[in-house]
Structures are given as structure tokens and as C-alpha cells.
Design brief:
alpha+beta, Cyclic nucleotide-binding domain-containing protein, Jelly Rolls
Length: 154
């Protein structure tokens, strides 16, 4: 069975590392329909949702972008900031008014380099998010475009 949400920072990072991460956070609010980032753009920040909903979408040739997952409270928006070449692999848009914590990717990467234990914890957390997103994207695209869908119960 597919988990309905991706691993959250509060569930994955030990308290000391959560505190380190949150020391780099700023609060940011966005109105409904705001584009946070575009697929192919430079990934220089990431967000954790405090309230509201974000849709992750993917370009499909000859069609409108397809929403592959919706994110809510406590979820990470954006993972491409952690891996060179730091290019967004999906797009993201606020579906509702959105309250977030926003993080400067370069500052977090510097902290990961300076504190290897922190860096391992962040890579473990983000890796879990990536694994979840890949499965969610695959399932969504199969549901949309495969003759028999994903075969998973809805």
C-alpha cells in the first residue's frame, strides 16, 4: 500500500537536527495560484508547508501539466535543491492560500557539509521523500495514461 504522505521532517530528523534546520527557516505566505517553481528552473530554496495545499505537476508533451501529487501540512516542497545540478524536476503551485517555512538551499547544503551527521540525516529524510514522490508520480501517470491504470486500488 502507498503511504498517503511523504516522510516528514518531524518524523525523520532527530530533534537536534530539526532544531538546526529550523534555525535556517523563514516564514513565507503565498496567495492561492502562486507558482513556487517551474520544472527546469534553478532550485535554490525549499519549503515546508505550515498550512494550505501545494500541487506538484509535471510537463507531459502535447498536454497540460499533470498534477502528480498534492502536499499539505508538514510536507517538504522541493528536493532538487539537494542534488547538483540543482534543477527542479517538477513544478509546484499553491492550490490554496499557503503558509510555509522557506529555506535557503545553499545555507542548508553548507550546514550539511559542515556537520556530516546533520548531512546524513537530511539526505536520509530527503531520500525518503524522493522515493515516495517517484512512486506517486509513476502511479498517477499510469492511472492517466496506461490502458489498465496502475492496478492499485483507489
Amino acid at each position: 500500500m502507498i503511504a498517503t504522505t511523504s516522510p516528514r521532517m518531524t518524523q525523520t530528523l532527530p530533534a537536534v537536527h530539526r532544531d538546526q534546520m529550523m534555525s535556517l527557516a523563514s516564514e513565507a505566505n503565498y496567495p492561492q495560484d502562486t507558482r513556487l517553481f517551474e520544472e527546469g528552473g534553478h532550485a535554490d530554496r525549499f519549503w515546508i508547508v505550515r498550512s494550505g495545499t501545494v500541487a506538484l505537476d509535471m510537463r507531459v508533451p502535447g498536454r497540460r501539466p499533470v498534477v502528480v501529487e498534492s502536499l499539505g501540512f508538514g510536507e517538504l516542497v522541493g528536493w532538487s535543491w539537494l542534488y547538483s545540478p540543482y534543477v527542479w524536476r517538477l513544478g509546484a503551485q499553491a492550490v490554496t492560500p499557503l503558509r510555509t517555512y522557506v529555506f535557503d538551499a545553499d545555507a542548508v547544503r553548507r550546514l550539511c557539509d559542515a556537520d556530516p551527521e546533520f548531512g546524513r540525516a537530511v539526505v536520509h529524510w530527503v531520500g525518503g521523500v524522493i522515493a515516495h514522490r517517484l512512486l506517486a508520480s509513476r502511479t498517477r501517470l499510469l492511472d492517466l495514461y496506461a490502458p489498465n491504470g496502475s492496478g492499485l486500488p483507489r
